[in-house]
Amino acid sequence: MPRSQRNDNFIDKTFTIVADILLRIIPMAPGEKEAFTYYRDGMSAQSEGEYAEALQNYYEAMRLETDPYDRSYILYNIGLVHTSNGEHTKALEYYFQALERNPSLPQALNNTALICHYRGEQAIRQGDPETAEAWFDQAAEYWEQAIALAPGNYIEAQNWLKITGRLGE
Known about the structure:
Elements (H helix, E strand, L loop, with lengths): L9 H16 L4 H18 L3 H14 L3 H17 L3 H14 L4 H20 L3 H21 L5 H9 L6
């Protein structure tokens, strides 16, 4: 049974109903509808922490989806799964692929910055301040891009940029 037919909570059920209605009324090619169904099932699995199932659904959605903009969101969500699994290198690969298809995806820029910041903190713990600064500078670049696209978001990142003197460098 597809995941979309076994949702237990109100929000998932509501999303599924709305998505099913949209699939019926919006003109789409059959492959696009099938891709969206896999994408929706991937999001549902991901929200329940079923990351292997989410990835299977996202990979199938990628196989079917041809629109670069829609593919960017699938790639972004694959990156989220890898981030959740602590696979930061893989996550970055998917965030970069998402940004290649959709450079106006601030959440991918933000998550890339978060990983760079995390790596900077790791370098500090390992006693390597030069490497840490390089990672922090990378984080600042990605956060500035994300903030430029979504000025009201990422307040903590804006504060970090101000506190560290990296705002507008």
